[in-house]
Amino acid sequence: MHRWTITVVVIGLLAAGCGDPYAKVESPVGDMTNTSYYGQRGSVSRPNARGEMVAYEQFAGQFIWADYAAPWCQPCVPQTQDVNAVDNSYGPEVVFITVMTSDMGGYGDPATVATASSWASRFGLDPGRVLAADLTAMTIPKNLLFSPEGHLLFEKTGQMRAAEIRDVLNSYMADWREWKENSKVADWMRFGDS
Question: What phi and psi values does residue 46 have, to the nearest 5 degrees?
Fold first, then answer.
């Protein structure tokens, strides 16, 4: 009976996402004053379109806008074009990364360096910032914004246009700076408060 209980607990923890290296990336925005939300950027390294290993933590000190895409995803095409257009307006303050979740086969067909390279070439993206991943079950397009310290500030599944991306960046970056410099907490930073 004792081994059965342990087995059930372990299966329950695995089903809840414990031990999943991507679980932190999927966390909702939370109370910025709660240190459990610190370090939400993933530390998993993935190959870029050049075959070099890249992890979000390499961009500590910069905002990161990550969009997730795949070559079979029709809304990912205008999404990528809009992200690329916005990328040029923020300079080094914001790092824009595209994560290819799968190849043309979709579910069960992980992205490769060739997938990332093809996407980077097709849209004129920096090949160093287009990554290949095995996230074939992820719903895309997906967008994430991380603070320079790794807080997950914003998350949206679904296509976003350039104007929406700029609005999110401007608003969340301003609120984050205000919190960092003056300890002023924006409403969206109080996730879960009553």
Answer: -135, 150
Indicate the CATH number of 24-190 among 1.20.1250.20, 3.40.30.10, 3.40.50.2300, 3.30.40.230: 3.40.30.10
Contacts of 45 by beta carbon, 8 Å cutoff, 6+ apart:
53, 54, 55
Q: How far apart (Å, rounded) are the C-alpha atoms in residues 148 and 41? A: 10
For residue 125, give the nearest of 171, 182, 85, 76 by alpha carbon.
85
d(CA 23, CA 17): 6
Inter-CA distances, 29 with 33, 94, 102, 152, Å:
12, 19, 26, 6
Report which residue type is found at 169: L
CB neighbour list of residue 7: distance below 8 Å, 6 or more residues apart: none
Amino acid at 102: S
Question: What is d(CA 91, CA 144) in angstroms, rounded to the nearest whole number?
Answer: 18
For 153, the token pair is: 């500030």
Q: What tens digit of pLDDT does each residue of 72-104 get? A: 999 999 999 999 999 888 888 999 999 999 888
| Residue in this structure with the two tokens 């997950």, named with its chain if needed | 152
Query: Which of 20-29, 114-123, 177-186: highest mean pLDDT?
Result: 114-123
Tokens of 97: 């990364």
Alpha carbons 185 and 25: distance in angstroms, whole number: 22
